[in-house]
Fold:
Amino acid sequence: MEGKELKPRMKKGFWKPEEDLILKKYVETHGEGNWTAVSKKSGLMRGAKSCRLRWKNYLRPNIKRGMMSDDEKDLIIRLHKLLGNRWSLIAGRLPGRTDNEVKNYWNTHLNKRNSPRDKTVHVNSQTEKEQQFLLNSHVKQQDHLEKQISVSTKGGEIDTFTIDSWVQNLKNVDYGINIPLLPPEEEYSSIFFHNDDMFMPILDNLVLLEAFGTNGDETMQESLFF
DNA sequence: AACGCTATCAACCGCTCTCGC
DNA sequence: AGCGAGAGCGGTTGATAGCGT
Structure:
């Protein structure tokens, strides 16, 4: 007991607006990272982890709050099918959404739909389109590279790209699943694929490539089958 | 109005990973 | 190679709002 330095008791529970303000100002001044220092020097009686979490999930700029759009829901379902519970990876594909938010959303809204009983029904009732997707997922990536994508410009012309060039583009930019798919709005009025099912496995492969460092081995193929 | 139940989600906890020494 | 500190991740908890009875 004697001579032992007591650690200051850290505060827990919900953050107050004034605490948010202190943390926000501190990070804006000193930058992100070194959360131990933030915890000690900001004056907040909060642990480093707590500060990091609060900043990452609520205070950092460009955080999107509120309802998930249908596109976001679809993307979560799709990515979860590919990646499993790798929430940070999934959240990385949803601009402005955090891993915690995606995880919560999955557990409260989507997981119910995918409960074991529902899953059986889903598999048994696969539509032709879904089956085609699964089938395509097994085709080697290079088989797709010869296929073409058509994009209509605002001037009414139709541009055709090889998927190879699209994949190259996706590799060069830090591809988000829903953003680089679309060309710049000012250039194109609409986009359509000859067969978008055919295109999607490439996207899946890219996600898998990033997540697991591979995209075509048996392990990955198995993961596509629930 | 009061109570109990359920859904939601912010926050915590424990573990793993990464990096510097 | 081994160790420790800091950061990150995913699972879980708990407060509370909302709803039904």
